[in-house]
Specification:
single chain, Butyryl-Coa Dehydrogenase, subunit A, domain 1, Butyryl-CoA Dehydrogenase, subunit A, domain 2, 3 domains, 4-stranded antiparallel beta sheet, 13 helices
């Protein structure tokens, strides 16, 4: 691994920094002083459900990024992306995370786009990729079901071919952006008699299609970040299948070689720890934390060291990709470690400020660090579950990384 930028990489890093300084709307500058928490405070939320000021800032920022192709830095230029190299994507994501600049596109850019680029027909690419980049099509992912979360191959939501249409019936769960999207992509069972991974197809649909119902799921932190979706005799055109019929599992597992080191997560952990230390040095923070500083001192040191470890996991993954190697168990290691580190950082922040950490309201003058540790402590419970539970990640590490036999 090479931690130092080459001259070309240093030049690109400065280009990204200058762009952010010049073009990031003033509305987002507050993020540099006040960390975001939870899943809802993001670009899509501002774009769809925000105040007039938030909507205007979201549009300005998306338009600025579109000029550079930076809405989808990993997409090829001919489809509106930037065609950045792996290291350039890493630098771009790192600088965006440092500036706390929001990244538009959601799962449409990160998941549907790469899938469409590999498996979509020329007509599908022409129809869907451009509007996705422009934010005209906002996508939700319909994968998980009540009985098929970590074991996604067990999904049962049915799609039956009827002439020139698919007819869909069933339920999806944890559809995270369905209340902010207008299109859905997902996996549906099209052959119930085939082995469970071989009877699934990848379908896309307009969310306004009759028969689709979205119901909110409110989290333990009073956050509407995800939903359950119901399909009752939903009819979509037969052409809305991506890839081959009954080969949707393999379509859905498609990943292009775009940067996935989670450097943004590493940057976030470092920033939160530093915010805790900075606040503890203020007169009010010192008063609130003084009785516990000696008790949690070693915990804070451990969190700082662990944030360094997470940085190095990120560098390891991007270095492998830059060398032409595809990370496997290494990405699982980083995901498991990073999600649990986020929980530990929140826990340490709660301990640092004792009873003051019971204050939930971020506007309360007595809330330590704007109650960010309090809220993140609650929101982070799910971090070791979504995106592939850490139990699944440990199985991957055991079998693919350590060569252990399957139990």
């Amino acid at each position: 691994m090479d931690w130092a930028d080459t001259s070309e990489q240093a030049q690109f890093r400065q280009e990204v920094r200058s762009f952010i300084e010049q073009r990031l709307p003033a509305h987002y500058e507050v993020r540099r002083q006040r960390d975001t928490v939870g899943l809802e405070d993001n670009h899509e939320q501002h774009y769809v459900h925000g105040t007039p000021e938030e909507k205007d800032a979201a549009r300005q920022w998306a338009d600025a990024l579109m000029e550079r192709g930076w809405v989808a830095p990993h997409w090829p230029k001919e489809y509106g992306g930037a065609g950045l190299s792996t290291m350039e994507q890493f630098i771009y994501n790192q600088e965006m995370a440092v500036a706390q600049a929001p990244q538009p596109g959601g799962s449409g850019v990160s998941l549907l786009g790469p899938t469409m680029l590999v498996h979509g027909t020329p007509e599908q690419k022409a129809k869907y990729l451009g509007p996705t980049l422009r934010g005209e099509m906002r996508w939700a992912q319909g994968f998980s079901e009540p009985g098929a979360g970590s074991d996604l191959g067990s999904l049962q939501c049915r799609a039956v071919r009827d002439g020139d249409e698919w007819v869909i019936n069933g339920q999806k769960l944890w559809t995270s952006t369905a209340h902010k999207s207008n299109w859905i992509f997902g996996l549906f069972r099209t052959d119930p008699d085939a082995p469970k991974h071989r009877g699934i197809s990848f379908l896309i649909m307009d969310q306004s299609t009759p028969g689709i119902q979205v119901r909110p799921i409110i989290s333990m932190g009073w956050e509407h970040a995800t939903n359950e979706t119901f399909y009752e005799d939903v009819r979509i055109p037969a052409e809305n299948i991506v890839g081959e019929q009954n080969r949707g599992w393999y379509v859905g597992m498609t990943l292009l070689d775009f940067e996935r080191s989670n450097i943004a997560g590493a940057v976030t952990m470092r920033r939160r720890i530093q915010a805790m230390l900075d606040y503890a040095k203020t007169p009010r923070g010192a008063e609130q934390s003084a009785p516990r500083q000696r008790l949690v001192r070693s915990n804070v040191a451990d969190r700082w060291i662990e944030s360094e470890v997470m940085f190095n996991f990120s560098f390891r993954i991007v270095s492998m990709q830059a060398a032409g190697t595809i990370p496997n168990y290494e990405a699982s290691t980083s995901k498991a470690f990073g999600s649990e580190l986020g929980q530990r950082v929140a826990n340490t922040g709660m301990k640092m400020f004792g009873m003051y950490s019971n204050i939930w309201d971020r506007q309360d003058a007595h809330a330590p660090v704007d109650a960010s540790f309090t809220q993140e402590y609650v929101h982070s419970v799910v971090h070791s579950i979504f995106g592939g539970s850490n139990e699944i990640q440990r199985n991957i590490i055991a079998t693919r990384g350590l060569g252990l036999p399957r139990g």
